[in-house]
Design brief:
Length: 129
Amino acid sequence: MPVPDLSPYAAALDAAESPAEFSTVLNALLDAVRPFLNEAIERLAATATWKGQNRGAEPESPSWLLRGAASSIASALAMASDADLKILRAHYDPSPDLRSLAQQARAAHAASAPLPPPGQQPGPGRPRR
C-alpha cells in the first residue's frame, strides 16, 4: 500500500483561517492516513501473534512491544479526532465561566430572598417559638 502524500494537507492546515477550516482539513488528513495506519495496525498485531509467540509473552517481549505499537497507532488516531473536537468546542461552544455563573446565582438569590423582620430571627442559643 503506497504512503499518501501529506504535503497538501500540511499546506492546507497552515492556510486555515478558522477552527472550522482547520477541522475540515484535519479530518481530510485523518481520512487519508486512516486506511494506511489501519493496515499497519493489522500487520503489527498479526506479527505479534506469529506462531503463537504472544501466548504467555512477558512484558517488554517482542510480541508485547508489537501489540503495544499497534495499540499506540490506534490511540493516536483517536487522540487526533478528540483534539479536533476539543478545538471546535473551545471556539464555538466554550464552557461557561463557573465563577461568574456562581456569582450571578448568588446575586439573583440575594435579590429574590425576602429579609426577615428585625428581632424575629432565631439564632444559636435562642429558643424557637
